[in-house]
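Quick one - inputs below.
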Amino acid sequence: MFRLILPREHGFFDLFRDISNLICEATREFQLLLAEGTASAEVHSKKIKDLEHQGDNITHQTMTALHKTFITPIDREDIHELIKRLDDILDFLDAAAQRFVLYKVGEAPDDMRKMAEINNASAELVKQAVSGLSNLKASEQMMKHCVEINRLENEADTVLRGAVAKLFSDEADIRKLIKLKEIYELLETVSDRCEDVANVIESIVIEYS
Amino acid sequence: MFRLILPREHGFFDLFRDISNLICEATREFQLLLAEGTASAEVHSKKIKDLEHQGDNITHQTMTALHKTFITPIDREDIHELIKRLDDILDFLDAAAQRFVLYKVGEAPDDMRKMAEINNASAELVKQAVSGLSNLKASEQMMKHCVEINRLENEADTVLRGAVAKLFSDEADIRKLIKLKEIYELLETVSDRCEDVANVIESIVIEYS
Amino acid sequence: MFRLILPREHGFFDLFRDISNLICEATREFQLLLAEGTASAEVHSKKIKDLEHQGDNITHQTMTALHKTFITPIDREDIHELIKRLDDILDFLDAAAQRFVLYKVGEAPDDMRKMAEINNASAELVKQAVSGLSNLKASEQMMKHCVEINRLENEADTVLRGAVAKLFSDEADIRKLIKLKEIYELLETVSDRCEDVANVIESIVIEYS
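Output:
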């Protein structure tokens, strides 16, 4: 019987909150990685890798709990989709950070800092929207966060396209062009995954309100 | 009670039909974008962006309806998968169109026109297959459309591989090679998503016939 | 009534086992493709293409069976996820093989052979983990395989990152760099999909043990 119900003190909503905190921390680390230059880039990328591993653990716990829980507080498929997308955010941030170090990019272009900033703003909104899930009393506020996350995703997409077009016209070093293009695309995928999270949350709000 | 049932006049099948119409229109716009050259490329890419936004709205309506509907005419997960894949088709077409303009490709290579033609043919078949879902009386015809969509996906894949191999051997400008390769891959993903739609429809036909 | 139950002699577990065998065979073919050089590369890539087609058939049979079966031995969504991911493994192996031939890569770099070896090891573990699903008696052994598949995925990722960094610093031919980078990434995706399979299996073991 005990197996059917998650312990009150750490249910699905706590797991979502925990992983959202990791995501916020990782986006801040990524901003530091870009700001502080080569010397400390490796330190920050290791921190992000560590946060990504912690995220994997939470995802694993969530999936285990999902398979052990008979009655879930929200739809099973929504829980599954949410945790997958939240975990994706960390994976793509980590992929971008590792490549930044490995490719020895050095000085980050302004557009990349801009995207890192957008990702951090999205992460904070994801955290707030996720924290509302447990009681759904602030549903109007949650919906506003989701709309804003969507707007930020469009902004990230615009920055990406402009940055890549600029690379093609201005960057003489074709190797550097390929490296930076890849990192930009990974960062844009981060904001795509934030949008996916927002879409799941919106659906849940609609269903339960 | 009223919330449980979708209004007759605009249920899931209508939403699928609406988005299929947008897809057909977008594939035709993309053909025009390639045919008419730089001057009007921007006009067509803006039209495709607009169709993509309309598609987002329909997807959003579908997800909302899914969360508000207790008993659905076909499996919930099939509805979810179908609308996601249909929406993907528009997203990838839009991504290809935006890049074509942004990268200032200019003259489209013949293989790209060929892929755009294949995508338009797939879109028309998707529309017909989708329109059969509401009564499933023409299931044999629907299955034929799905087989043909699969065949076209293989054809698109063959064109892609040949085109990219040709780029590697013939295209002297490495920037142009990278740009065109990316657009080809996006167009091939369009036909992949058409195939995904066909696979879901086939499953539904099998289940309900 | 007969439609509700899969014939004993070929149920879901047999389909999973069949496709796992194809995957093992395909990873071995890929190793041969890299080992034997240009002359026989085409032969092996055709064999892999053929295995990929057989995989499509099994996936199709599984989806059909899923839609015709009322009570499934494990969760429907787990069956769906498992077959999709198993099929993906073949698709990405095939994509890597086709590109190797089409791009006329010729001599495979050592890191690529290393990744092919890792993929073959993962495939063997996937086969063993999948074969345990039908009775779940060796669940501890299955869990060990899944942990090992995860470890191999990390190893593949490390090889990929090192190999691509090496390409950027050492490969003078930018076309060759782009070609090899793409093939490495496809091979890394193969090991990602093996990990996805392991994660689904772990969840099933947890649920039913």
